[in-house]
Amino acid sequence: MATAAGGGEEATIQRILRITDVAEESLRFLAPIGGYSKMPLVSLEEAVKPLVPILPDVQSHAYIAKQNCKKPADKLTPDESASIMLYTMGWEPPEECLYVVLNTTLRATDRQQKLKPWYLFLRLLLNALFRLPLLPAIAYRGVKLDLSRRYVEGETIVWWGFSSCTTSVGVLKSEMFLGKTGNRTMFTLHCKSARDIRKHSFYPVEDEVLLMAATQFKVVSSLD
């Protein structure tokens, strides 16, 4: 099982950022990406080399992730487990943090060209995630904004980035997340293909699951 040193206030901050970035989803339908699936499976060290010009500190964080994944769970290889851990890690500045930049790129209209440096890492990360068991669950995401006009009942939408969710509605209602007053939007998601990444996360918590990039949903109801 992967073990990590992440915790405390930093873990809470990163968790909030991951779960509440739903406001960054444009909801536009984008062309599917191609190319990464033809890439070879390589070590994490090799997979992040093309990312150094984009993420100057990625190699040092990849080293930390790899050191924490020597005996991974779920029959993953150390490199596969470490790719998930690296995704969950956060560092400053945010515009040079892996999960922030990756999800921003996945949501971009001109993402085809921008994603090319990510192909080796995406190949490794997706291979790892697909090897994890499916976790049917009711999950939640939210943000301190009113997004109700963007999510119309009956419409089909796509979240192009990877989506961190919580399986505990109480987490979102806490003051650290959405609180109980002001403009807020909370999503209740009936998921068939969530991935339980807790044993591979740098900030392991009991109630966080990950949805794959380009997950499609149908809006079945909306409450004011």
From TrEMBL:
It is an enzyme of class 2 (transferase). The keyword NADP applies. GO terms for cellular component: extracellular region. It comes from the Eukaryota. Its EC number is 2.4.2.31. Keywords: Glycosyltransferase, NAD, NADP, Nucleotidyltransferase, Secreted, Toxin, Transferase, Virulence. It is found in: Secreted. One of its GO terms (molecular function) is nucleotidyltransferase activity. Pfam families: ART (PF01129). Transmembrane segments: none annotated. It catalyses: L-arginyl-[protein] + NAD(+) = N(omega)-(ADP-D-ribosyl)-L-arginyl-[protein] + nicotinamide + H(+). Belongs to the Arg-specific ADP-ribosyltransferase family. This is NAD(P)(+)--arginine ADP-ribosyltransferase. It comes from Rotaria socialis. The lineage of its organism: Eukaryota, Metazoa, Spiralia, Gnathifera, Rotifera.
